[in-house]
Design brief:
six-stranded mixed β-sheet, single chain, binds zinc ion, elongated
């Protein structure tokens, strides 16, 4: 099975599925292999028609079952000093080099190689495959796939996201919500501040409000939170505005993010900010200039994966890998999106996140072997427990 997986991985690495480019050739390849194994496969194009999600099913089309999920896209190689061709799989010294080997085509290759085995062993519960686009740019594809699953009434019970965790079980990560807030004021001469609306001044007050919320969030940390730090954080990453000393600043802009440990914190921050703008800042700005505006642009909202006491995915993967215990990680994945629509989810896949996104990205062969061992046990489990 290892040789077969390597062959498939070589094919997958040769598809240069950088997030900005099409993934359709890779999706067609995955679809034909799953169909050859007997799966029912649907491909869902995005609105540009250049990218697609794939959803495949082995076994009966009923509720429940397990979903194996991975993203097709990879980060760019531009300006990275690669020693080998990043879009050609190079095997050297027990390492498999290539863009996407660990993040996360190795896992996808292993599931495709195993598909014929799964097909033989699947019984009364389905085994699903989800391969998505645009994970690296904010989990866009998985968000659309989740909508599709809801529309079609497809309800897997458990999802395993094969992001690189060195085959450890990961049961939680924070969300990552990024925003740019624009302030539109009114220009004027610096000598007469009351006749203009100074966007920088309003932006400063907005930042002050963000800092107050940042403090308030500390006391909202869930009891026994294992996150580091345990609460939802806010960071103001960039502040731009104004022109010169003696002109009232007409525009300002803030780039900021929050990393929620629970969905209620994100709602609290959004609602507090909205209220502050509606009740305090905007009325003041509009008294002088009725067209004054504060606009917040959502750059990305990757949902967190909230650790849960009851998690069938954790139980199953622990059984398959022999792991005892599950970790939290600082990086985001598509897992939270699947959790939000009702699945029990863990992240568990071959390779180390330390090698992801870098020049000379690699996956160790022994990690791939461990992944195949897990999938082999999964096949046996399908046969025994459905
Ligand atoms: Zn990834």
């Amino acid at each position: 099975m290892f040789a077969r997986t390597l062959e498939i991985l070589g094919d997958l690495i040769a598809f240069p599925t950088v997030s900005t480019d099409s993934n359709l050739e890779m999706i067609a390849y995955l679809a034909s292999h799953l169909e050859a194994a007997g799966a029912k496969v649907d491909v869902f194009l995005d609105e540009t028609g250049r990218k697609a999600n794939l959803f495949g099913t082995l076994g009966p089309e009923v509720d429940g079952g397990i979903l194996l999920s991975g993203h097709c896209d990879v980060v760019p190689v531009t300006d990275q000093p690669w020693a080998t061709d990043p879009f050609k799989l190079t095997v050297h010294d027990g390492r498999l080099y290539g863009r996407g080997t660990c993040d996360m085509k190795g896992f996808i290759a292993a599931t495709i190689a195993m598909a014929p085995v799964f097909a033989r062993k699947v019984r009364d519960r389905p085994l699903h495959f989800a391969f998505t686009y645009d994970e690296e740019t904010g989990c866009i594809g998985a968000g659309h796939l989740a909508e599709t699953l809801i529309e079609r009434g497809i309800r897997p019970n458990v999802a395993i996201i094969g992001e690189p965790t060195e085959m450890r079980i990961v049961e939680g990560h924070k969300g990552c919500y990024e925003y740019t807030t624009h302030f539109h004021g009114l220009e004027g001469h610096g000598s007469d501040p009351d006749r203009g609306v100074n966007a920088v001044e309003y932006a400063v007050r907005y930042v002050t409000q963000l800092l107050e919320l940042k403090n308030a969030l500390r006391s909202k940390a869930p009891a026994n939170s294992r996150f580091e730090p345990p609460w939802t954080t806010i960071n103001v990453g960039a502040f731009n505005g104004g022109q010169v000393h003696n002109v009232i600043a007409p525009k300002a802009q803030i780039d900021w993010e929050m990393r929620p440990v629970q969905a209620s914190d994100a709602a609290f921050v959004k609602q507090s900010l909205q209220q502050y703008c509606d009740d305090v800042l905007l009325p003041e700005m509009r008294r002088v200039f009725p067209q004054a505006k504060i606009e917040t642009q959502t750059m990305g909202e990757v949902d967190g994966l909230e650790p849960a006491d009851d998690n069938a995915a954790r139980q199953i993967v622990a059984e398959l890998t022999g792991a005892n215990g599950a970790d939290l990680v600082p990086f985001g994945t598509e897992a939270g999106i699947f959790q939000k629509i009702g699945m029990d989810v863990v992240v568990c896949g071959p390779g180390s996140i330390a090698q992801a996104h870098k020049a000379d990205e690699y996956l160790s062969s022994d990690q791939l072997v461990k992944c195949l061992e897990m999938l082999d046990k999964l096949a046996d489990r399908l046969e025994k427990k459905g």
